[in-house]
Design a protein that fits this description.
There is one protein chain. The N and C termini lie far apart (about 45 Å). The protein is α/β, with parallel strands linked by helices and about 300 residues long. The longest helix is centred in the middle third of the chain and has 31 residues. The protein has twelve helices and twelve strands. Helix 4 crosses helix 5 and helix 6 crosses helix 7. Helix 11 links the parallel strand 10 and strand 11. The mean pLDDT is about 95. It has a six-stranded parallel β-sheet with strand order 6-11-10-9-8-7.
Length: about 300
């Protein structure tokens, strides 16, 4: 695994999840502890319910840790017992419409107040995982993998990148702090590809460097300057294949250079791009344009 890619088995960060749920519940309930004026007015506080979290459409499941976390935090806010949760599937599973993901037993106030926050997060994550799985399937057998980007929903990056992993995709950098990514504006500001790479090496020698290139000349300059991860931006498949072959032919001297296709990628052209020999296809749409998967809470 290249150092600027997250481990595929990395779990959803529980500290992030707890904080995200706390903020999301406060948004829905109007602060801490907050209130649900409909549920608390119409249902006795000691009424118990049984409920199922159910897929309304087929898809890949992601974010199941959300279910017990939301229920637990609502219970604490209300000073009521924590419901029991039994998960029936695992993150990363492809399931059919009608599949029960989890069963819940507990106080009705807790379950119903938790419902929308729980489903919003779970549906969002599962939508990204489902979309990512389509890309992973399209690339199967090519040797290339689909990568995500930083085009994420503000404050949901941890969940969305986790969902990409559940769908079979790969995470690149988390943010601006853990990997240097040299793009056209950085090259223009620094004066050249080489100058930009050297400036980063001097200022932050501990971070990996990726360089977005638009031509063979830029690619070869970047490799000569020490870059070992190139993003081949908006190149036609034929031109990309030719450049990839040139780079691979020199790897006995340079060492392995990871290559990523970026720009203008669709599911229809994914396989054609992959066979050029690149390692990755970068797809911002995984996180910025995935529709949710319809998931519901059904009281029994």
């Amino acid at each position: 695994m290249h150092p600027e890619l997250l481990p595929q088995e990395r779990p959803l960060a529980q500290s992030w999840l707890a904080d995200a749920v706390r903020r999301t519940l406060s948004e829905d309930l109007g602060g801490f502890p907050g209130r649900d004026v409909t549920t608390q007015a119409t249902i006795p506080s000691d009424a118990r319910v049984s409920a199922a979290v159910v897929m309304r459409e087929s898809g890949v499941v992601a974010g199941l840790d959300v279910v017990p976390e939301v229920l637990g935090q609502v219970a604490i806010r209300l000073g009521l017992p924590r419901p029991t949760v039994e998960l029936a599937v695992s993150d990363g599973d492809q399931v059919d419409a009608g599949t029960t993901l989890a069963t819940i037993e507990g106080v009705g106030h807790v379950v119903l107040i938790a419902e929308r926050t729980m489903l919003n997060l779970l549906s969002r994550a599962s939508g990204i995982a489902t979309h990512t799985r389509r890309w992973a399937t399209a690339l199967q057998g090519t040797g290339a993998q689909v990568l995500d980007t930083r085009k994420t929903t503000p404050m949901l990056r941890e969940l969305e990148k986790y969902a990409v992993r559940c769908g079979g995709g790969v995470n690149k950098r988390i943010g601006l702090y853990d990997c240097a990514m040299v793009k056209d504006n950085h090259i223009a500001a620094a004066g050249s590809v080489t100058a930009a790479i050297q400036a980063i090496a001097e200022a932050f020698p501990d971070v990996p460097v990726q360089v977005e290139v638009e031509s063979p000349a830029q690619a070869h300059e970047a490799i000569k300057a020490g870059a070992r991860f190139l993003m081949l931006d908006n190149m036609a498949p034929d031109a990309m294949a030719e450049l990839v072959a040139e780079i691979r032919a020199k790897e006995k001297k340079t060492g392995r250079v990871l290559l990523e296709a970026t720009g203008g990628l669709t599911l229809d052209n994914a396989a054609d791009v992959a066979v050029t020999g690149v390692d990755y296809l970068s797809v911002g749409a995984l996180t910025h344009s995935s529709p949710i998967v319809d998931i519901a809470l059904d009281l029994k």
